[in-house]
């Protein structure tokens, strides 16, 4: 068992990339429609474009921060946190927690997913690039 833990610990400093890449990909994916059709959300177009810029810019900053500047990680993640707070407050809070539509009306619009993304974003805001230098406890 100790040998397996040593192998895992050897790569632990790179584990932050799993979260960075998935978070950045999620926001890039959700930013694209905001530029293609900003009127789709029923909000002022300028607001939709600003959210799209925050999502895309945040993703690029988070990825760049993985290679260098701590402030890029923190700023990109702060953009995500602001977007998620806005999404929760303006849309998802009214539908409760559940994000899985189980044939129960609006239950699929809950804030479960957005809250998870918010918490992950806040983790990067507070930890910055120190998440890539943490050592595992053996």
Mean pLDDT: 89
The number of E-state strands comes to 0
Structural class: mainly alpha
Count of DSSP-assigned helices:
5
Sheet bearing the most strands, described? none
Query: N- to C-terminal separation?
Result: 11 Å
Number of domains: 1
Can you tell me the overall shape?
Answer: globular
Low-confidence stretches: none
Kindly state the percentage of residues in helix. Answer: 55-70%
Radius of gyration, in angstroms, nearest whole number = 17 Å
Strand content is under 5%
How would you describe what is shown here?
This protein is mainly alpha-helical and 138 residues long. It has one domain. Helices cover 66% and strands 0% of the residues. The protein contains five helices and no strands.
Topology:
Blueprint: H1 2-11, H2 16-36, H3 45-65, H4 70-92, H5 112-127
Helix pairs in contact: 2-3, 3-4, 4-5
Essential attributes:
138 residues, mainly alpha, 66% helix, 0% strand, globular
Give a brief rundown of this model.
The protein is mainly alpha-helical and 138 residues long. The chain is 66% helix and 0% strand. The protein has one domain (2-131).
